[in-house]
Design a protein that fits this description.
- The structure holds 2 protein chains of 2 kinds.
- By secondary structure, chain A is α+β, with helices and mostly antiparallel strands.
- Chain A contains 10 helices and 20 strands.
- Chain A has helices at 2-17, 66-74, 116-126, 131-144, 160-172, 190-207, 218-224, 242-247, 252-257, 322-326; strands at residues 28-37, 40-50, 55-59, 81-86, 89-90, 101-104, 178-182, 210-215, 227-232, 235-240, 262-272, 275-280, 284-289, 299-304, 310-312, 328-338, 342-349, 354-360, 375-379, 386-388.
- Chain A has a 6-stranded mixed β-sheet, sandwiched between helices. A 5-stranded antiparallel β-sheet of chain A has the order 13-12-11-14-20, with no helix packed on it.
- In chain A, a hairpin with a 2-residue loop joins strand 4 and strand 5.
- Mean pLDDT of chain B is 85; it is low at 265-271.
- Chain B is 79% helix and 0% strand.
- Chain B is mostly helical.
- Chain B contains 12 helices and no strands.
- The chains are: A alpha+beta, B mainly alpha.
- At the A-B interface, strand 6, helix 3 and helix 5 of A face helix 8, helix 9 and helix 12 of B.
Chain lengths: 390, 271
Amino acid sequence: MAEELAKTANNSTTEKTAPRRATDMPLLRIEGVTKRFGNFTAVNELSLDIRAGEFFALLGPSGCGKTTLLRMLAGFETPEEGRILLAGRDIAQVMPHERPVNMMFQNYALFPHLSVRDNIAFGLRRAGMARGEIAARVAEMVALVKLEGMEKRKPDQLSGGQRQRVALARSLARRPQMLLLDEPLAALDKKLRESTQAELMELQRRLGMTFIIVTHDQEEAMTMASRIGVMDAGRLAQVATPRDLYEAPASRWVAEFVGDVNLFEGQVISREQGRLKVTTREAGIITVAEPRQSVMKEIVTVAIRPEKIKLSRRGLASGADALQAINRFEGEVAEINYLGGLTAYRIRLDNGAVVRSVMANTARLDADGYGSSERVAVWFTPDDGVVLEQ
Amino acid sequence: MARTVNRLSRFNMTALALGLAFLYLPIVILVIFSFNASRLVNVWGGWSLRWYIEFFNDRAMLEAAWMSLRVAAVSATLATLLGTLAAIGLARGERFAGRALFSGMLYSPLVMPEVISGLSLLLLFVALNAERGFWTVTIAHTTLTMCFVTVVVQSRLASLDRSLEEAAMDLGCNPVKAFLMVTLPLIVPAIVAGWMLAFTLSLDDVVIASFTTGPGSATLPIRIYSEVRLGVKPEINAICTLVIALIAVLIVIASFASKLSSSQGESAAPL
C-alpha cells in the first residue's frame, strides 16, 4: 500500500511538471457526447476536459463505454450528440485519417506483411514526408522503443513485448497531439507489464505528449495516470487523481469498484464539531468526520478501506485511549488470508457484521499475528471513514 | 501421441493403399498408357512419345485445347474480379437489405446441378439471341466459378483483424487506400488461390460447356468426349496426361498460396 501511495505522489509531481499550454482551453474538451448502438446507449451525455500533457486513464468494467469513447476520439465511431473539441476544433465528424491523433490498438494491429521499419514508416509515408526525413524519424522511433537491429523483421518474428514496442513506435511516429492507448498492456505477462508501465510513463514525461489510456485494470490506471476517469454505464462516475479516487470516492459504486472497501449503511443521528454520528445496523454507532460538502441526506453509507481498520489485542479488557475509543468494536477473527506482503483478516463483530482488515507484514517473524477465532478489538479514526450519499 | 499417429498399423496401411489405389490407379494407368507405342489402347507395345507428337499435329484437338485455355483464363479472371468484390461486399459491407438473400444466391451454384445451370443459361442465350461460342461459354463458366472465389476470399477476409484497416486509417489512409495498402496485400494469396480454382473448374467442365458452346468452338473436354464416343484413341491418353499435369501444378500453387495466406493470418490474429 505504501508503494502505491508513493507512486501516487510521483504522479502528482508528474502532473505539476507537465508542460502547460498558454491558454486556459484544455487540449481536449468532450461536451455532452452520446453514442448509441441500436437501443443500447454506450456513452451517455458525457463531458470531460483533458489538459495538454496529461496522462489520463479511462477506467471501468467491460461494457462501460470506455473503449467506445476512445474510438470516438480516434474517429472510428461518430457520436450522435455532442462535440469533441481538440485544441478548439470540433473533430466529432472528422474522418480518422484527418485527425492529428493516433491510436495504439489493443492487439497492436501491426501490418503482418510489412517489416518493423515499414510499419513505423507507414504513417509518415502517408503524410508525404521526404524520404530522408522518414528514415531519420524511423531511426529515432526505433531508438526510442529500443528496437535497434529489429528493423527488418516481420511482426511474426517478434515477441509479444517487441510487438507492443513496434505498435507504440508506429503510433508515436507522426507526433500526434494526443496518443490514445487501448488496453496497451493487456497482452503482456505480469513482469513485462510492470516494466512497460514504467517505460510508458517515462516516455510520456519525456515527450510531454497527452496520453489517454483505456484500461480495466485499476492498478495499471493508478500507477500510470495523473488523473483517472471512472466510467460506469456510459457515464463518468468520478474524475480524480488516483489518490482522491481511492481516499475520497464520490459514490458507493466507485468505492466498491476501486479497491476493497467496508461499507456500512445507516442513519445520521447527530452532527457536532465537524463530526457525524451514524447509526448502522451492522456495526452500531460510527463517528466520522463531516465532509467538506455538508451531508444533506439522512441515510448515508460509511466507507472504510480495509487497511484503515486496525486490529489490537491490547485494551480488550482495559479502556483504550480516547482516539481508539471513538470507533471501537469487538469481535473475533473469522478468516485469515496470508498474501505475502499483507495479511487480510475477516473479523466477525459481536453485533454480527463482518469487516475486512488488511495489515502489512512488517516483521519477518511475526509472533504477534492474530490467530483464528482470537478475540480482537477493531478500531479506526473518524478521518478514516468516508461518508457517501449515493 | 505423435508416435501412434505416425506408426501405421497393418490394417491402416492396407486401407490407405486400397483407398489410394481406388482413387489414383485409373489415372496412373492412363498416364502409363499415354506412353504406349501400340495403336491398341489395351495392349502394351513398349514406351513411346508417339501419341504426344500425334496430339501436337492434331489441329482440331489443339484448337479445342487453345479454346479451353482461353475460356478458362478469361472466365477465371472475370470470376475472380466479381467473386472478390462479392466477398468484400459480404464481409465488409454494412448489413444491407437482402444481404442474406444475396449470400444465398451467390452460393447457389455450389449446390445447383450443372445440368440445370447449363440448361437455364442456354435458354437465356437463346432468348437473348446471342451467338453461342467463346463468349457464351466464358460467361457461363464465370457464373459457375465465381462462388468458389467468393468462398475462398470471404473466409480469408473474415479471418483478418478489422483493426488492421482501422490502424491504416489512423495512420493517414482514407478507407479506400487503407483497403488497397493493407487488406488487399493480405488477401492476395486467397485471390490467387481462387483464380486457380476457377481456372481448373472451367478447364474440366463438360456439362455447362456443352450447353452453352456453339459450332466450331468446342472446348477440350467436349472434343475429348465426342472423340471417345467414336472409340478411344491412345492420343486421348496423352492429352489427358497433359491436362492432369497442368491441373496438378495449379493445385500445388493454389495450396501453397492459401497456406501462405493462413500463416500470415495467424500473425495478424490477436495474441
